[in-house]
TrEMBL record:
Keywords: Endonuclease, Hydrolase, Nuclease, Nucleotidyltransferase, Transferase. The lineage of its organism: Eukaryota, Metazoa, Chordata, Craniata, Vertebrata. The keyword Metal-binding does not apply. This is Murine leukemia virus integrase C-terminal domain-containing protein. InterPro entries: MLVIN_C (IPR040643). It holds the Pfam family MLVIN_C. It comes from the Eukaryota. Signal peptide: none annotated. Residues 18-70 form the Murine leukemia virus integrase C-terminal domain. The keyword Amino-acid biosynthesis does not apply. GO terms for molecular function: endonuclease activity; hydrolase activity; nucleotidyltransferase activity.
Length: 98
């Protein structure tokens, strides 16, 4: 019986089938497809990887075929200034610094 159990187990891969690393940003594909609804959610930052899966805080472990690499999200900042006695709001955007 022990030999049968050993035959049923698969050996781990010796190589990764994706090039995603911890710290990368990815989009995760939705399971349900509906018309006029976004198929990809994110971006989410990758926390851990295995040979065939990636882990994000929001989605847990996801198979590599359900994710794609994305750019880091933009960060918006605002500054409230007063010019000639009138308030002025300035918005600036920048990418995340890694």
């Amino acid at each position: 019986m022990e030999e049968e159990a050993q035959l049923a187990q698969t050996l781990p891969l010796d190589f990764a089938v994706h090039n995603i690393q911890p710290g990368d940003w990815v989009l995760v594909r939705e399971w349900k497809e509906a018309p006029l609804v976004a198929k990809w959610r994110g971006p989410f930052q990758v926390l851990l990887t295995t040979e065939t899966a990636v882990k994000t805080a929001e989605h847990g472990w996801t198979h590599h075929t359900r994710v794609k690499v994305s750019e880091a999200p933009e960060i918006w900042t605002s500054q409230l200034e007063e010019k000639d006695g009138k308030p002025r709001l300035t918005l600036c955007r920048s990418g995340l610094e890694q």
